[in-house]
Amino acid sequence: MSLTTLLGFSFVQNAIYAVTAVALAAGAVGYFVVLRRQAFAAHAIGHIGFAGAAGAVLLGLAPVVGLLVFCLGAGLVIGLAGATLDDRDAVVGVTLTAALGLGVLFISLYSGYANATYSILFGQILGVTTGDVWLVAGLSAAVLLTVSLVYRPLLFVSVDAQSAAVRGVSPMSYSVLFMGLLALTTVVAIQIVGVLLVFALLVAPAATAAALTGRPARAMLLAMALALASSWIGLALAIWIGGPTSFWITALASLGYLGARVRLRVGQAHGQRVAA
Predict the structure, then answer these.
(1) Do the Cβ atoms of 24 and 139 come closer than 8 Å?
(2) Considering only CA atoms, which of 132, 143, 144 is closest in space to residue 18?
(3) Nearest CA to 26 among 154, 171, 197, 164?
(4) Tens of pLDDT along 22-45?
(5) 26 by DSSP, 3-state: which?
(6) What is the pLDDT of residue 27?
(7) Which of 42, 139, 226, 253 is the most exposed place for a label (fewest CB within 10 A)?
(8) Strand (E) positions, the chain?
(9) How many CB atoms lie under 10 A from the CB of residue 107?
């Protein structure tokens, strides 16, 4: 089957639109996840969202409603209670544990077959509808717009919270704002790669970009480009070769990070030999 024929299918077009929106948002927010050392929070929020999806199914609602409520709620709790590095991991861990317990309860109480809930674990990019595309695009646009508006103060707080506080920039406020952005991005990304792999799309491209350049603006743009490339190529491989789209996307993103680390090590070794 030719590429032109494949692109003529509506489900392929929807997948391309959705994966583009997700990659751009994940790359932008993922850079700050790496910069602020909040990878554990990014990982936890996705699993917390699964509990929300299970609760929504139990109540007869769309799983995305539970995703939004639980992810945003978790982001608010972590942002308010874990603004400092010293207690952040503990707050994230306790919040995650409580949410997973609720998820187990919701699933045990549901008597039907929660196919929609389980699909959230692994993503459903080739099953995205036109309505899903509009939802994902809207949330991604809101995330990108907010990041562009608060880029400088958020970067300042992320790099040096104490100096930012002295200058009148509230670390707590931006912590809550950032966790809200992370929660929205997680909800968007789950539609593509699922709860189990959302961590890779958020962190791997951004970590790769941070390893390749130390300039914040360039690193964030590079993270967006890498996330976009991994998503497009992964989607193409899934359609042409077969296999889960989430596997291809996360495999490419992880290989990109591995390549960046090897390049960095080789460069450091070369520099040491020259200095010697």
Answers:
(1) no
(2) 132
(3) 197
(4) 899 999 999 999 998 888 888 888
(5) helix
(6) 92
(7) 139
(8) none
(9) 17
Q: Which CATH superfamily is domain 3-199 in?
A: ABC transporter involved in vitamin B12 uptake, BtuC (1.10.3470.10)
CA gap 108, 147 in Å, rounded: 39
Q: What's residue 114's pLDDT? A: 58
Taking only the tens place, the pLDDT of each residue in 161-195 is 888 888 888 888 888 899 899 988 888 888 777 77
Using alpha carbons, list the distances in angstroms from residue 276 to 262, 270, 271: 21, 10, 9
**Nearest Cα to Cα of residue 125 among 268, 238, 269:** 238
Q: Which residues of the chain have pLDDT under 70?
A: 1-8, 82-88, 111-119, 121-123, 196, 267-276
Instruction: Fill in the amino acid letter for 36.
Output: R
Q: How many whole angstroms separate alpha carbon 213 and alpha carbon 31? A: 12
CA distance 137 to 129: 12
Cβ–Cβ < 8 Å for 182, 29: yes
31 is written with which tokens?
Answer: 């850079």
